[in-house]
Automatic annotation (TrEMBL):
Protein name: methylated-DNA--[protein]-cysteine S-methyltransferase
Top-level division of the source organism's lineage: Bacteria
Ranges for domain Methylated-DNA-[protein]-cysteine S-methyltransferase DNA binding: 110-187
Keyword DNA damage: yes
GO MF assignments: methylated-DNA-[protein]-cysteine S-methyltransferase activity
EC number: 2.1.1.63
Reaction(s) catalysed (UniProt annotation): a 6-O-methyl-2'-deoxyguanosine in DNA + L-cysteinyl-[protein] = S-methyl-L-cysteinyl-[protein] + a 2'-deoxyguanosine in DNA; a 4-O-methyl-thymidine in DNA + L-cysteinyl-[protein] = a thymidine in DNA + S-methyl-L-cysteinyl-[protein]
Length: 189
């Protein structure tokens, strides 16, 4: 599908599902997609920061943001372009740490503690679910940590791909195994 068709689909989705959407007004939540070498990302930005950079289905993420954050959602390139530029710079090897603020309202309180800890994992390194669980003071919560990592709503900005099961076992990733391996290999190269 070409970009204009995708954009038209998004405009139609926004008109139908957001009763307050006005194409020319700046929405409260900027929403769009962005193609990356790891696959398409759904992007959303609020006044607080980036609320989504996710490999989730576009329509499902739109519905979730509509339900959990707000209904005035629309296309706003002015607010999405800085995020797109950082993502492109990351994939181009020119950016190692994202600078944009993020908004973790889509994560549970436990997941927020996990995701905040993950932000300290440096580019080109990995940690394990067990190490993350220990660092947040919940050493027995391996499954909960794995779920928080897999359900990260702000992939890349919060580098959940750097959390692995153990040596030689990358573990699950929202974008799939191939995307996780691509990201890890890109950072190690």
């Amino acid at each position: 599908m070409d970009a204009s068709a995708a954009s038209g689909d998004l405009e139609a989705l926004l008109r139908v599902t957001s009763p307050t959407y006005v194409g020319e007004s700046a929405p409260d939540i900027a929403f769009g997609t962005h193609e990356t070498p790891a696959g398409p990302l759904v992007l959303a930005v609020t006044a607080r920061g980036v609320i989504a950079t996710t490999f989730d289905d576009e329509h499902a993420m739109y519905a979730r943001i509509y339900r959990e954050v707000g209904s005035f959602i629309g296309h706003d390139p002015k607010r999405l372009d800085p995020l797109r530029r950082e993502i492109d710079a990351y994939f181009g090897g020119r950016l190692r740490t994202f600078t944009l603020p993020f908004d973790l309202r889509l994560a549970t309180a436990f997941a927020r503690s996990v995701l905040q800890m993950i932000t300290s994992v440096p580019y080109g390194t990995t940690t394990t679910y067990a190490e993350v669980a220990a660092r947040i003071g919940r050493p027995q919560a391996l499954r909960a940590v794995a779920n928080a990592v897999t359900e990260n709503p702000v992939c890349l900005l919060v580098p959940c791909h750097r959390v692995v099961e153990g040596p030689g076992s990358p573990g699950a990733y929202a974008g799939g195994k191939a995307a996780k391996e691509l990201l890890l290999n890109m950072e190690i190269a």
